């Protein structure tokens, strides 16, 4: 019995020494990694903690990358939803603007006020005045195409136009009831009818009544040529320059279609048909939002390979 106890103690001591020697050899071969403690899992095998950490590092990095990609791609449906909502608000604003312009241009005409401060708040407002034209000081805004509200509503959004161009004839108009001279856009004439001698029937003389809408001065837009005062070629409404050339007050009226004189310019050249394509944009952005939301859900929630 004593012999067995001695043999068991000796065996235990030998196995302990072998384990220590094996660990030392492992330390020398694996350098720093073997300095980490050993762990013993359920199956009884000795494992180095450093090896487990290295094996789990790529997995943690991959999970981190997937998490970043998951939330980054969620920005796509969120952004398209925001753009769709913005277009809804833009459409409401555009409809209100169109209704307001329509109301102003179809309202009962009022007498023309001459107070500049009052005129600034009356753009597109219909006014009525009496007087006579001074055809000797005509101005020409060109190139211009004739205004056809119904046609423009049908062709809204197209990149091409009908190709028909001409000019708008601006004529000084002496208001007999106000005692001042203003500028009146009598309307559109085709290119071959710009010169006054080609449309003598329309050069009406004497006192007439004109109904039109108030327009304010314009600021030159990018890519629009500068006005050529010497050649009488105007590309935008510069009321200060026009009034300086003609001696009229810087007050501008677009004559309505009812003021058209046979053989003369065609009135009613006020553009109030605004492009309203926001419904198309709404469908586009919300459609993209729905599609990208489903793809995100399928990829990261349901784990479907796309």
Helical residues, percent: 40-55%
The helix-strand sequence is HEEHHEHEEHEEEHEH
Number of helical elements: 7
Dominant shape: elongated
The chain-level structural class is: alpha+beta
* Counted beta strands: 9
Strand arrangement, largest sheet? 4-6-7-9-8
The rounded Rg comes to 42 Å
What is the averaged pLDDT score?
80
Q: Spans of 5+ residues with little confidence (pLDDT < 50)?
A: 1-5, 22-36, 156-160
- Determine the N-to-C terminus distance: 73 Å
Major β-sheet, in short? 5 strands, mixed, barrel
Short description:
The chain is an alpha+beta fold.
Q: Could you explain how this protein is built, in words?
A:
This protein has 306 residues and is an alpha+beta fold. The protein contains 7 helices and 9 strands. The strands form 2 sheets. It has a 5-stranded mixed beta barrel. Strand 1 (38-39) and strand 2 form a beta hairpin. The chain is elongated and about 90 Å long. The model is unreliable at 1-5, 22-36 and 156-160 (pLDDT under 50).
Write the topology of this structure:
Layout: H1 2-30, E1 38-39, E2 47-48, H2 49-73, H3 75-106, E3 110-111, H4 116-120, E4 126-133, E5 139-144, H5 149-154, E6 166-175, E7 180-190, E8 208-215, H6 239-246, E9 252-255, H7 278-300
Helix pairs in contact: 3-7
């Amino acid at each position: 019995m004593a012999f067995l106890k001695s043999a068991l103690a000796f065996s235990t001591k030998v196995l302990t020494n072998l384990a220590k020697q094996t660990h030392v050899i492992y330390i020398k071969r694996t350098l720093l990694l073997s300095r980490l403690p050993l762990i013993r899992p359920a199956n009884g095998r000795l494992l180095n903690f450093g090896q487990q950490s290295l094996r789990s590092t790529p997995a943690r990095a991959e999970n981190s990358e997937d998490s970043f990609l998951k939330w980054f791609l969620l920005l796509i449906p969120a952004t398209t939803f925001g753009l769709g909502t913005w277009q809804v608000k833009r459409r409401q604003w555009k409809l209100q603007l169109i209704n307001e312009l329509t109301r102003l241009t179809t309202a009962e005409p009022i007498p023309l006020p001459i107070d500049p401060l009052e005129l600034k708040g009356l753009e597109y407002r219909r006014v009525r005045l009496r007087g006579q034209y001074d055809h000797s000081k005509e101005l020409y805004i060109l190139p211009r195409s004739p205004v056809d509200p119904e046609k423009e509503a049908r062709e809204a959004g197209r990149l091409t136009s009908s190709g028909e161009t001409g000019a708008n004839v601006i004529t000084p108009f002496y208001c007999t009831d106000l005692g001042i001279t203003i500028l009146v856009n009598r309307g559109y004439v085709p290119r071959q009818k710009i010169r006054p001698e080609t449309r003598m029937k329309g050069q009406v003389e004497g006192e007439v009544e004109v109904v039109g809408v108030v327009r304010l001065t314009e600021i030159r837009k990018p890519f629009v040529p500068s006005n050529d005062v010497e050649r009488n070629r105007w590309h935008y409404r510069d009321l200060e320059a026009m009034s300086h050339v003609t001696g009229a007050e810087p007050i501008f009226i677009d004559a309505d279609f009812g003021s058209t004189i046979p053989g003369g310019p065609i009135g009613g050249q006020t553009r109030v048909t605004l492009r309203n394509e926001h419904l198309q944009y709404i469908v586009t952005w919300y459609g993209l939002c729905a599609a990208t939301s489903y793809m995100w859900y399928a990829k990261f929630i349901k784990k479907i390979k796309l």
